[in-house]
Design a protein that fits this description.
- The protein has 9 helices and 38 strands.
- With 630 residues, the protein is mainly beta.
- It folds into 3 domains: 236 residues, Immunoglobulin-like; 172 residues, C8orf32 fold (Roll); 206 residues, Jelly Rolls, CATH 2.60.120.1130.
- The N terminus is likely disordered.
- The termini are far apart.
- Helices cover 15% and strands 39% of the residues.
- It is globular.
- The strands form 10 sheets. Strands 5-4-9-2-1-10-13-12 form an 8-stranded mixed β-sheet, with no helix packed on it. Strands 27-28-26-25-32-36-35-34 form an 8-stranded mixed β-sheet.
- A hairpin with a 2-residue loop joins strand 1 and strand 2.
Length: 630
């Protein structure tokens, strides 16, 4: 991952000493649905020079109950580029009476190593203190001086259940360089701003009510005020640069990559020898990608030029590990050795967020992948995952804009995408119902597209965990016994197949000469979504998908369906559904089901319609048929 320095962090720590902020002064409407209330957040950024930026962050928050403790954490990140000048905090009770005061020496100081990291020069100073009684208020102030030109985004609305009395940002620019910005959602009457990109920029938000978290909400960035900044001229770890668009930013990134491909002639010959028997360019890429997966592992090492410059290929060759930047560069260098062009590509990983096409900034992007354009196919490679399939990005980085670093500079490109009809789970099976109601069956389930993303790791689990996961998946079957299974992972094409032999006692309910059975034994849709009459936000179905089931069911001797099954066909804005059951000449029942769910963003007024769509599908999937003795 690209270093924290260029990613917005939630806890903007702040302090104001003029008032003690008693609980009684909070307007009643701001307490509604709130775990905590930001009394005053004041962020000041003073650019005295490109290599001297003073950040002052003052934060006063009243925590109403234990659920609000996480919003009141007091900490400050720093590194060799960032000096902490001042750090202090004061806790008050609900009446504004001081409980405890802390100076910088009272803060715990430790390395900020997160999962997957081996070493980082980022450190954190934080308080390990929680008041005994609620409500309480914390005032927290930090002043830092940074030798790099960077302004964090203004994100006043940070979380559900958090109200805001006042939040502000002031930027004072003494450098003469232009401050570029991208503004979102500033049209509300409780927001004021002044921004001409020159000497003084300010934003202020007042009296923002808390809101409850809602299912399927898009990123808060697209719903509430958000402003991102970029200095046209900048310094990062002593390295100067300038850009106003993506092409120019790509030119600067090229300087960071200039000496990263440093394989010796002997090492290049080694990689050429690896692919000498390959008959296609795709096969060569496959061989080298598999070599990368077998040889290396991902470890975060956040050092060097803002954490943006990759370690050279020789480093990874010698150490057999690296972060996303180093591993992407390592594979790029291998491909270059065998004459296949590839492109170092910066992307925002995680929940899908596109780059702003009309606003370039280093802050956009936290991960690096590799793009390989072959003559008849685009290849996308995730270099930090030693298990995933070839040419498969998965939900982590799929279907979003990314910055491709080319010889002529930067260019935005859309990453690998998956449509609803390519994200498939296909279930095929043959089952039999015995006279005592027991159900025995063989199922074959094939997953592709983003449906592959959620299952391929099963291949790498222990046998004990595999059995547990499979029992959970087929848990709708009563008295389940899985007595055999096999897993097939098609690494070349990102297709995962599960074969299962199972039995279920008391599957059929017997009533004299009749029995009832679920028409769809496994794989039905379940939902716990609830309707909301006063929903506040739009909603997003992030990934569309297709589920298909073809299943033949052998009935007990002497039984048949009591009546012909009328097919179910249903369609609305969110997808389509089909369920049919046909009695074959053999007396068996052929069951066919197909569900397609569309991805997309929808207005809040449609949410209850989506809940109803899910409920209908769940009801259809729970359809039962009556079997009668002949």
């Amino acid at each position: 991952m690209i270093r924290y320095f260029f990613i917005y962090f939630f806890c903007a720590a702040n302090f104001l000493s003029a008032q003690n902020y008693p609980l009684s002064e909070i307007p009643e409407d701001l307490k509604e649905d709130a775990y905590a209330v930001i009394r005053n957040e004041a962020i000041s950024v003073k650019l005295m020079a490109l290599n001297k930026v003073v950040h002052t962050r003052e934060y006063v928050i009243t925590v109403l109950g234990k659920a609000g403790d996480d919003y009141a954490m007091a900490y400050q990140m720093y590194d060799p580029d960032t000096k902490i000048n001042q750090l202090e905090a004061v806790y008050y009770d609900k009446n504004g009476k001081e409980i405890k005061k802390f100076k910088s020496k009272d803060f715990i100081d430790q390395s900020f190593i997160t999962g997957g990291q081996m070493y980082t020069d980022i450190r954190v100073k934080y308080l390990n203190y929680s008041p005994v009684y609620y409500p309480y208020t914390i005032s927290f102030k930090s002043v830092t001086t940074q030798s790099s030109t960077y302004i964090r985004p203004w994100v006043p609305v940070k979380s559900p259940n958090l109200a805001i009395e006042k939040s502000s940002l002031l930027i004072e620019n003494e450098t003469g360089t232009k401050i570029l910005s991208k503004e979102l959602n500033l049209g509300a009457p409780n927001i004021s701003s002044q921004n001409d990109g020159s000497s003084k920029i300010s934003y202020e938000l007042k009296n923002q009510k808390a809101f409850e978290k809602e299912e399927l909400m898009p990123s808060l960035k697209y719903l509430y005020p958000y402003v991102e900044f970029s200095a046209a001229d900048f310094v990062i770890d002593g390295v100067k640069g300038s850009f106003t668009n993506w092409q120019e930013l790509g030119e600067w990134y090229k300087t960071l990559l200039a000496d990263a491909n440093d394989f010796t002639p002997q090492q290049k010959n080694y990689f050429r020898d690896l692919v000498k028997n390959a008959t296609t360019e795709r096969e060569k890429v496959e061989i080298l990608y598999k070599h990368l997966q077998d040889k290396t592992r991902y470890i975060g090492i956040q050092l060097g030029i803002g954490g943006l410059k990759p370690f050279p290929a020789s480093y990874v060759e010698n150490k057999s590990y690296g972060d996303c930047k180093a591993l992407a560069n390592y594979l790029h260098s291998m491909l270059d050795a065998v004459g296949i062009p590839s492109y170092y590509t910066i992307v925002q990983a995680g929940p899908r967020e596109d780059f702003f096409s009309d606003f370039a900034s280093i802050a956009q992007g936290n991960h690096v992948i590799l793009y390989v354009p072959l003559e008849n196919e685009d290849i996308w490679l995730e270099t930090t995952n030693q298990r995933t399939a070839f040419n498969f990005l998965g939900s982590f980085t799929e279907n979003r804009q990314a910055l491709m670093i080319m010889p002529e500079g930067g260019k935005l490109i859309q990453t690998q995408s998956f449509e609803a009809d390519t994200n498939k789970t296909i279930m095929k099976g043959l089952g039999e119902i015995l006279p005592d109601g027991k159900f025995k069956a063989h199922f074959s389930m094939t997953n592709s597209g983003l449906e592959y993303d959620g299952v391929y790791d099963l291949k790498f689990e222990s046998e004990k965990d595999q059995k547990k996961i499979l029992n959970d998946y087929f848990s709708d079957l009563p008295n389940l016994n899985i007595y055999d299974y096999s897993l097939e992972n098609d690494w070349h094409n990102a297709v995962f197949t599960l074969n299962v032999d199972l039995e279920s006692k008391q599957f059929a309910k017997i009533y004299g000469d009749e029995m009832t059975v679920n028409l769809l034994p496994v794989g039905g849709l379940r939902t716990n979504l609830k309707k909301i009459d006063d929903r506040m936000h739009p909603f997003e179905i992030r990934f569309g998908y297709t589920n298909e089931t073809e299943f033949e069911l052998k009935l007990p001797a002497g039984y048949k369906m009591s009546e012909k099954f009328q097919p179910i066909l249903f369609a609305d804005d969110f997808g389509t559904y089909f369920l049919a059951a046909e009695e074959l000449a053999s007396g068996n029942i052929k069951i066919h089901r197909r569900l397609l769910v569309k991805d997309g963003q929808y207005p809040k007024e449609k949410y209850n319609d989506y809940v109803e769509f899910r409920r209908k599908i769940s009801s259809f999937d729970n359809t039962k048929i009556l079997l009668q003795k002949i």
